[in-house]
Design goal:
The protein has 16 helices and no strands. The chain is an all-alpha fold.
């Protein structure tokens, strides 16, 4: 367990924290608005700067957006900044964005934003560990994001207690060998009613257990669909297979922008070092004092 936590901290930063409801409301608004406005052919930096003005200043999200914009200017991506803001963004959020930003990946960035939007909206409504686990695991299944790193990131979510984390890491080792429906059924109240105490903490209720038992040896997507229908758990957005030429062009344009930023940084490094002054702005108060003092000297 210690090695797993060391890996999580190395990849996604320190332990995440549960946030206030208003933070999740603003997160959902940010992810949705950014996804919608990407169609306007504006740079992501401009969009973040504009959306920041609409976010409640009483939340911590505007500060996070400033940091994301600075990181985007430096590296062309969000994931590294989100990992450094591990007290605000969960490891799973960072993992999803990291997978979407891969140059050789097929996970669409807009789908990633919609995934995070729906998760934040579910947290606003009052998320449960069962619902968060099922939603995040379905995200891995539908988008083929990889169970090893994905489940490790899920284990770092602050909504899960120690029993949940231990079980998620057990699923990480056994997924592919044992159906997820069986794993859920064995830890459900329904299993205890049928066969007695399993000797492990019960993590799922009677209804989840019944639905899991009914979907054993079936496609796990049928299990998730049934849980969504009967228990109201959020559904994961499905990948859009057909992409219009305009969207493909926009995707290539963003990748070229990232490559251009990286090439410029490499060129500056070869010339003797990266000039960091252009990434910092002088405070208005300081600049005004400088102007006043210069006038007095003149």
């Amino acid at each position: 367990m210690t090695q797993i936590w060391t890996y999580i901290e190395k990849q996604y930063g320190g332990p995440a924290q549960l946030l206030d409801r208003e933070e999740y409301i603003e997160q959902a608004y940010f992810f949705r608005t950014l996804r919608e406005r990407l169609e306007e052919n504006l740079s992501t930096q401009e969009l973040i700067k504009a959306i920041k003005q609409e976010i409640l200043s009483t939340t911590r999200l505007p500060l996070a957006l400033d940091f994301l914009a600075a990181e985007l200017r430096l590296t062309g991506g969000f994931a590294t900044a989100m990992a450094r803001l591990s007290h605000y963004f969960t490891p799973f959020q960072t993992f999803v964005i990291h997978e979407a930003e891969k140059d050789d990946g097929r996970f669409d960035f807009r789908i990633a934003l919609e995934v995070l939007q729906r998760e934040a909206e579910y947290r606003v409504q009052g998320a449960t560990p069962q619902g968060i686990f099922l939603y995040q695991f379905e995200t891995l299944c539908r988008n083929r994001l990889g169970y090893d790193r994905g489940l490790t990131a899920m284990a770092g979510d602050p909504i899960f207690d120690e029993n949940w984390r231990e079980w998620i890491l057990t699923v990480r080792r056994q997924v592919g060998l044992i159906d997820i429906a069986d794993l859920i059924f064995l830890r459900s109240e329904y299993y205890r009613q049928l066969f007695g105490d399993p000797g492990k903490p019960i993590l799922f209720g009677e209804k989840e257990g019944k639905i899991a038992a009914a979907n054993r040896k079936k496609d796990p997507l049928y299990l998730f669909a049934a849980l969504s229908r009967h228990l109201g758990y959020p559904s994961v957005p499905r990948p859009r297979r057909e992409e219009s030429p305009q969207k493909t062009l926009m995707l290539l344009s963003r990748k070229l922008q990232r490559l251009e930023v990286r090439i410029k940084l490499l060129e500056e490094e070869l010339r003797g070092g990266i000039n960091l002054e252009r990434f910092y702005k002088r405070p208005e108060s300081q600049s005004s004092r400088t102007t006043d003092s210069s006038e007095e000297v003149s």
